[in-house]
C-alpha cells in the first residue's frame, strides 16, 4: 500500500510539472509583452528597445526563445507519454495481484462480479480515514450459551477492547448460564465506554427449534437468523460475531465498511474459504445451495433497518422451509440458510475481503488472504479442532490468540478521552468511597483494598448439580491461589458433595488452571464443583472477598466453611447432612463445629475413623490445629471433651476463636477489611456470636490440615512491623463498628480483647 501511495505522489508531481512549466513559459512570453496596454520589449534593455542598433539583436533573441519554447513543449509531450505508459503498467500489475489472490482490500459488492467468482478489489485510498466519528458507538451482537462459550467471549472481547478507540455496545444473546457469568464479569470489569445488554436466548428457541440442525453449536447456532426481531427496533446496523473470533485491528475499520454498501446490499460477508459448498469433499456430499463457494457467517455486517423493510423474517423462513423439504436438516446451522437466501437474492450481499474473516479450519484457502502480518484483521477458529487446526502459519495465529487469552484484562480499563460516557452508579460510588480515604494514612493500602472491585468470572468450568430434595444438602466452601492447586484432587476424593471454590489468579494463571483441570481425570469427572475466578489486582490477598464469592454462589441450603489446606474426613458429607436434621439447623441459629487437627508430615496415612485419629494423636503423628503457635484459635472447641464425646455439645465464644463451621447459607458475610493474614476468620466468628448463633461441636467429625510452605502474606505479617500495626488498627475499628451495630451486647468483645 505504501508503494502504491508513493507512486501516486510521483505521478501527481510529474503531472503538475507537465502542466506548470509550459503555462509559465507562455505567460511570460505573451502576457509579459504588454504593460499598461503597450507592447513591452522582451529585451532587458528597455530604453534601447526600439533603436536600430538593437533591432537585429532583439529579433535573434525572440527567435531563440521561440525555439526554446518548442523544445520545452516537445520534452513535456514525451514526459506525458512516459507517465501514461507507467500508469498503465502499474494498473495492470495491481489488477494482476487480485487475480492471483483473495482480495487484500475492500470489496465492491458488485453482484455480477460475485456470480463470476471474481473477488472484489480494495478501494482504500492514500491517507483515507475510516468513516467513523471519534465518539460514534459501535454495536456488536454475539450469541453465547453455556460455560465454554462464555470463556471464549472473554477472549474475543479482550481482542476488541485492546484495539478499539470508540465506545462499544455489546448485544449478548445469552442463555441463563452465560448471562449469569457475563453479567457478573462485566459488572466487575468496569470498562469505561462499554455498555452491555442481554437478550434471553431461551425465549428465542421457539423461533428456530423447528429447524433440524446437525452442527455442534446446536439450537443456538441458528439464532443469528432472528436478530432483526430480537435487537431493538431503533438499532439500524450491527456487527455480528461468532465467539471463536480474534480481532487483530480496530473494529471501527470494519464498522466503516457499512458506508460502502450500495443499493439493496444489507449483508456484509466474507466468502467461505473451504470447498464445502462446492460439494466435492467426499462421495455423495450434498451441501445446501450457495453462490459459488458460499459465505461464512462468523463475521456479518447487518443493515437491520433495511432488512426489516425487506421482510427478512419471511424471506429466510420461506427459503428454509423450501430447502428442508429436500435437505432434511442444516449441517452448518444459520450459515446454510443465509447462503440459500443469498443464492436466490445475490444483490443482498456486499462481499467483504477475506482478511475480515481468516477461517482457520482444515483444508481452507485462508493462506491466500494475507501476504504479511499487517494484512490480518480478523482470525476465525471455525474448526471443531480450534487451536489444533492444520495451517501453515497456525503457530503464529495460536500465539496471537494466546496473547489475548492470557492478557491482563485490568489493563483494558482505559478511558476514551473526549468521549462522554454514561453515568455508572457503581463506578461513581467507588470513586466517592476512595476519595474519602486519606492517602497519607500509613494504612491507606489496607483500607483501599476493602473497596477494590475485582474482576470475577463465575463458573469458569462446567457446573451441573441439583441439590438433594430433602433440603439437607451441604456445599464445601473454600478459597485458594495457584500455589494450592495440588489440593483440589485430594479434597474431591475426600468430599463427594458439591464444592464452591474461589480462585485468586491472574489471567495467565487462570489458563494454567484450566489446562491442569482439563488434564485431571478426578476433576473432570466432577461436575458439582463450581470454580469462580477472582482476578488479581492490588498487593494483598483478598481472602474474605474470595470467601464471600464462594459463599454467594452455592445452590444448597447449608455450607461448610473450610480452607483449602484441610482434608475432611472420609464420609463427612453424609455425616453433616444427618447432623443438619438431628440438630434442626433449618429452624435454629447454629454453627456446627468440625474439630480441626494438623500433621507436620507431607505423607500421611489418613485416619479412617475417630479411634484411629485419637491413636495418631497420642503417638504424636497428629496435633490439634495450631497447637504449637496459636492454641487460642481452637482451644474453645475443648478437644479433651471431644475425645470421649458421643453427642454434640455446646461451647461458648472466646477471644480469637476461629473454628471451621457448618451454617445456613443466609449467614453473614466475611468482613472485607481483613486481607492477607490475620483476623479474617476471627472477625466472622465474632459476628456470628453477636447474631446469637450457638456453637455446637460435632463429636464424630474431624478435618486435618496438610503441611505447606508459609504463604507470602504470613511472611509479610511476621517481617513487617507496619503490617502488624495496621492489622491492630483494623481490629479496633471492627470492634467499634460491632459496638455501634449490636450495642451493649458487643461490649464483651472489647473486654475479652483487653483481657487476652
From TrEMBL:
<protein>
    <submittedName>
        <fullName>LARG1 glucuronyltransferase</fullName>
    </submittedName>
</protein>
<keyword id="KW-0328">Glycosyltransferase</keyword>
<comment type="similarity">
    <text>In the N-terminal section; belongs to the glycosyltransferase 8 family.</text>
</comment>
<dbReference type="InterPro" id="IPR051292">
    <property type="entry name" value="Xyl/GlcA_transferase"/>
</dbReference>
<keyword id="KW-0333">Golgi apparatus</keyword>
<dbReference type="GO" id="GO:0035269">
    <property type="term" value="P:protein O-linked glycosylation via mannose"/>
</dbReference>
<keyword id="KW-0808">Transferase</keyword>
<keyword id="KW-0511">Multifunctional enzyme</keyword>
<dbReference type="GO" id="GO:0042285">
    <property type="term" value="F:xylosyltransferase activity"/>
</dbReference>
<dbReference type="InterPro" id="IPR002495">
    <property type="entry name" value="Glyco_trans_8"/>
</dbReference>
<keyword id="KW-0472">Membrane</keyword>
<comment type="similarity">
    <text>In the C-terminal section; belongs to the glycosyltransferase 49 family.</text>
</comment>
<feature type="transmembrane region" description="Helical">
    <location>
        <begin position="12"/>
        <end position="31"/>
    </location>
</feature>
<keyword id="KW-0325">Glycoprotein</keyword>
<dbReference type="Pfam" id="PF13896">
    <property type="entry name" value="Glyco_transf_49"/>
</dbReference>
<feature type="region of interest" description="Disordered">
    <location>
        <begin position="86"/>
        <end position="109"/>
    </location>
</feature>
<keyword id="KW-0812">Transmembrane</keyword>
<dbReference type="Pfam" id="PF01501">
    <property type="entry name" value="Glyco_transf_8"/>
</dbReference>
<dbReference type="GO" id="GO:0015020">
    <property type="term" value="F:glucuronosyltransferase activity"/>
</dbReference>
<dbReference type="GO" id="GO:0000139">
    <property type="term" value="C:Golgi membrane"/>
</dbReference>
<keyword id="KW-0735">Signal-anchor</keyword>
<keyword id="KW-1133">Transmembrane helix</keyword>
<dbReference type="InterPro" id="IPR029044">
    <property type="entry name" value="Nucleotide-diphossugar_trans"/>
</dbReference>
<comment type="pathway">
    <text>Protein modification; protein glycosylation.</text>
</comment>
